[in-house]
Amino acid sequence: MDVFEASRYLPAAPSVVRLLHDQDRTVRQWAAYLLGLLEHDPAVPELTALAARLRADGIPPGEAEPVAVHWSLTSLGARQPVLPEVESTSFEHRPTGDVWLAARLEELLRALAAARQVILGFQLWRRHERFGLTWERHEEVGWEFDRAADWSDNVAAALFATECEADALTQDRDDLVVTIEWIDASDQPAAQSVRVHGP
Q1: Which segments of the chain have a pLDDT < 70?
Q2: How many domains does the chain have?
Q3: What is the DSSP letter of 100?
């Protein structure tokens, strides 16, 4: 799949769709992500079905596999994320989500919460002229996501957790950017409670 991603080898897409039923979660994650990159629209029904299976199995929405499925559905136009009303701070637009200036992180988090979005977490990246973006570790705060609870409670809990993480970041963020994962209530129909441990 790495080769198909690097070459954007579109004829591989139908075979990759079948991997959405693989027993290995990492294989399914990579397959879902690759289908979005390959812009393979016929994969939408299978990706939607996989998202439903993950919810039924109680897989936390912030884990890698459901995040990859959301990325792909968004890239294929089958999912329309609610964007914060601070789009001018976007550093770079990507099909699977924007890259934002880390200096405006707190503003972004508050704007997402104001739009009733549950923030699954954020990733910190350092900009390099030669290497592009390199991942930076930051302290994460675990929190509980309860599908049976009121959506507003989840929004508030997610905002509190991510604001705590943001407060712990360095104040010198000039060369730092962030990617943020969030979901709308339409992404998580009411179901049993699950626990999310960070993004």
Answers
A1: 6, 87-91, 93-97, 190-199
A2: 2
A3: E
> What would you report as the CA-atom Rg of the chain, rounded to the nearest whole angstrom?
17
Contacts of 89 (CB under 8 A, 6+ apart): 100, 101, 104, 107, 108
Query: What's the pLDDT score for residue 135?
Result: 87
CB 187 within 8 A of CB 79: yes
Place of tokens 């990859």: 68
What pLDDT shows up at residue 45?
97
Whether residues 45 and 143 share a domain: the answer is no
Residue 182 has a pLDDT of 93
Q: Which amino acid is residue 130, in one-letter code?
A: R
Closest CA to 159 of 179, 143, 135: 143
- pTM, two decimals, is 0.81
State the DSSP H helix or E strand holding residue 120, giving kind and residue range, or none if neither. Answer: strand 118-128
Dihedral of CA atoms 104, 107, 112, 118 in degrees, nearest 10, equals 90
Q: Which residue in this structure is represented by tokens 């609870």?
A: 149
Task: Round to whole Å and give the CA distance between 89 and 192.
Answer: 36
Domain boundary residue, one of 55, 75, 95: 75
Same domain flag for 18 and 39: yes
Residue 62 belongs to domain spanning: 2-75
Name which of 95, 165, 94, 96 is nearest 136 in CA terms: 165
pLDDT digits (tens, 9 = 90+) for 148-180: 789 999 999 999 999 999 999 987 888 899 999
